[in-house]
C-alpha cells in the first residue's frame, strides 16, 4: 500500500510505502488509480494552516486532481466535515451534503455514511439521509464514490 502526504509521517510498517505528494499536483497519470481515499484533508487545503499557500479554491482544485487520477470504475472514499456550509479560517471548511454531491456530480455515489456530532444520535449511520447531514454543526460525512 502506498501512503502519500504533504508532510509524510515516518512510519516503518511492512507492505506500506510512505511518500510525499501535493494534492494539488498528484504524481499519477490520468485515470491510473483504482482505489483512492482522502480522509479529512480537503477541508484544509488553501487555508494556510499546514504551510500551504492561501487559495480560496484550493479544495476545489484538489477535488479536481482526485477525479483526474481516479480510474474508470475506480472507488474514492472521501471524508469531510458536513453540516451547515462555512469556513473557519484558518482551521477548516465544513461542507453541506449538496456541495459535495455537486463537486462530484460526474461520479456515482455508492454510499453515504454519517458519524453525527451528538453521541445520542448513534455512531456510524450507514445510508444516512441528506437532511441529517445538513442538520449537523460538525458531523463526519463519509462518501463512497465510483467513477
Description of the molecule:
The protein has 147 residues and is an alpha/beta fold. The chain has a single domain, classed as Vaccinia Virus protein VP39 (Rossmann fold, 3-Layer(aba) Sandwich), CATH 3.40.50. The protein contains 3 helices and 9 strands. Strands 3-4-9-7-8 form a 5-stranded mixed beta sheet. Strands 1-2 form a two-stranded parallel ribbon. Strand 5 (86-88) and strand 6 (92-94) form a beta hairpin. It is globular, with a radius of gyration of 15 Å. The two termini are 21 Å apart.
Could you outline the blueprint of secondary structure elements for this entry?
Blueprint: E1 2-5, E2 17-20, E3 33-39, H1 58-69, E4 70-82, E5 86-88, E6 92-94, H2 97-103, E7 108-115, E8 125-126, H3 130-134, E9 139-146
Parallel strand pairs: 1-2, 3-4
Antiparallel strand pairs: 4-9, 5-6, 7-8, 7-9
Amino acid at each position: 500500500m502506498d501512503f502519500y502526504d504533504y508532510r509524510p509521517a515516518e512510519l516503518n510498517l511492512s507492505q506500506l510505502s510512505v511518500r510525499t505528494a501535493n494534492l494539488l499536483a498528484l504524481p499519477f497519470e490520468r485515470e491510473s488509480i483504482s482505489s483512492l481515499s482522502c480522509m479529512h484533508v480537503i477541508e484544509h487545503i488553501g487555508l494556510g494552516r499546514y504551510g500551504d499557500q492561501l487559495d480560496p479554491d484550493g479544495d476545489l482544485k484538489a477535488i479536481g486532481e482526485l477525479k483526474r487520477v481516479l480510474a474508470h470504475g475506480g472507488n474514492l472514499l472521501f471524508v469531510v466535515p458536513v453540516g451547515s456550509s462555512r469556513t473557519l479560517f484558518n482551521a477548516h471548511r465544513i461542507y453541506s451534503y449538496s456541495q459535495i454531491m455537486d463537486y462530484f456530480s460526474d461520479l456515482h455515489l455508492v454510499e453515504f455514511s454519517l458519524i453525527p456530532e451528538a453521541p445520542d444520535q448513534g455512531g456510524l449511520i450507514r445510508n444516512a439521509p441528506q437532511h441529517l447531514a445538513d442538520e449537523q454543526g460538525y458531523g463526519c460525512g463519509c462518501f463512497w464514490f465510483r467513477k
